């Protein structure tokens, strides 16, 4: 049932989040007794950059209003609106475009691991810079990828 509710909420909230100038990354619902949590993950639509708290705040108001009007979540619920986080997992070309300029860690199909600055992204490949060299990696060869926060 939670999966069906999450799908329904995704359909409801996608245009609301888009109108706020953001991309709806996902919706999760959990229930503990009489109370529910609705977690909405939003991000910039595309390309490099950082999402700011003012934009998330404005989206939160719009999301809250839409949820209250639709009345799809039974009983009391807590709304959490968040971004994917600094060390997000990368799975789509859009995710990689959003991470451009950041350090990433890749695990390739043969088990090879690479880390470096993501300097370019196309629909089918990545450009990774490490130790003064550049390497092109086909997206279909990436088993897993994650942004790495460098301090």
TrEMBL record:
Required for maturation of 30S ribosomal subunits. It is found in: Cytoplasm. Residues 90-149 form the Ribosome maturation factor RimP C-terminal domain. Its main location: cytoplasm. The keyword Cytoplasm applies. InterPro entries: Ribosome_maturation_RimP, RimP_C, RimP_C_sf, RimP_N, RimP_N_sf. The keyword Thylakoid does not apply. Residues 13-87 form the Ribosome maturation factor RimP N-terminal domain. GO terms for cellular component: cytosol. It comes from the Bacteria. This is Ribosome maturation factor RimP.
């Amino acid at each position: 049932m939670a999966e069906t509710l999450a799908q329904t909420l995704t359909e409801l909230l996608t245009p609301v989040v888009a109108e706020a100038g953001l991309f709806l990354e996902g919706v999760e619902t959990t229930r503990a007794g009489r109370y529910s949590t609705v977690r909405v993950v939003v991000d910039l639509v595309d390309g490099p950059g950082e999402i700011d708290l003012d934009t998330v705040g404005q989206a939160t108001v719009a999301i809250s209003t839409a949820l209250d009007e639709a009345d799809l979540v039974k009983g009391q619920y807590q709304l959490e609106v968040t971004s994917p986080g600094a060390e997000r997992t990368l799975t789509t070309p859009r995710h990689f475009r959003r991470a451009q300029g950041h350090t990433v860690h890749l695990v390739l199909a043969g088990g090879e691991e690479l880390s470096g600055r993501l300097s370019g992204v196309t629909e089918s490949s990545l450009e990774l810079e490490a130790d003064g060299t550049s390497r092109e990696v086909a997206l279909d060869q990436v088993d897993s990828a994650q942004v790495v926060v460098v301090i």
